[in-house]
Amino acid sequence: MFTYQYAQPDAYHFSLDSIHLAEFVASQLQSRSDLASLRVLDLCAGCGVIGLELSWYVRALRQFDFVEVQETYTPYFNKNMAIVNRPELQLCWHPMNYDELQDKQWKEKFDLIVSNPPYFQQGQGMLSPSEFKNRCRFFLDSNFTNFIYAISNSLKCGGQAYFLLRPLLHHGTDLFSELQKILVPMDLIARKITQLRGTDVILLEKNIRDSFGFSHS
Is there a domain that residue 56 lies in? Predict the structure, then answer.
């Protein structure tokens, strides 16, 4: 199943979707020769399992950043760094809202982004009495559009982002169609590349610009 016995809050356990996403992304990276130079972001990281699993499957990766809005996860991430116990890794924890990734300081910082973001928009489904659980499951601290803008700003030209997306058709929402509309002004291309346990895996690729400013796929 997963490679380490991770520390995580009793109130909310990470989904196996995150574990399968890390394994899938690892399979997509095996042929690359530049792994040691890649800077990886685990976005909406929780206790860090996607990035940490990826570091286990692809041992050549060295640089990982983790962005998570809920500071409740900080001690669990620190415990998981100790469990992984690989001093050669550069693991940087950022307890902050991903909206901040739209700032200039984060522009084109990451070669690879992986994420299992909240699945539901506000107003879709029943909220829990637990604010902590709600913030894990729903876009409450920001919204899906800003999630995509954060990826767009922080992903390098030529970079890739893999994230999980539930269609939510039973809620009257086609999130992939919404994604396509959000991407119209951006140098990003979105594709559904597989499904994991009924959830789509989306690949966003950022076009490389030439010296004249034109984009190339």
Answer: yes
- pLDDT tens column, 25-80: 999 999 999 999 999 999 999 999 999 999 999 999 999 999 999 899 999 999 99
Residue 169: domain span: 16-216
pLDDT at residue 124, as a whole number: 54
Please state, in angstroms and rounded to a whole number, the distance separating the CA atoms of residues 95 and 191. Answer: 29
Length of the chain: 217
How much of the chain is helix, strand and coil, in % rounded to 5? 35, 25, 40
Q: Residues 27-37: pLDDT tens digits?
A: 999 999 999 99
What SS3 class is residue 111?
A: strand
Q: Are 76 and 47 in contact (CB under 8 A)?
A: yes
Nearest 5 degrees, angle CA 197-CA 132-CA 135?
A: 60
Q: DSSP for 2-30?
A: -SS-----TT-PPPHHHHHHHHHHHHHHT
pLDDT over 90, % of the chain = 65
Residue 77 forms part of a structural domain:
yes
How many structural domains comprise the chain? Answer: 1
CA-based nearest residue to 113, from 175, 48, 193, 204: 204
CATH number, residue 162: 3.40.50.150
Among 157, 145, 159, residue whose Cα is nearest residue 114: 159
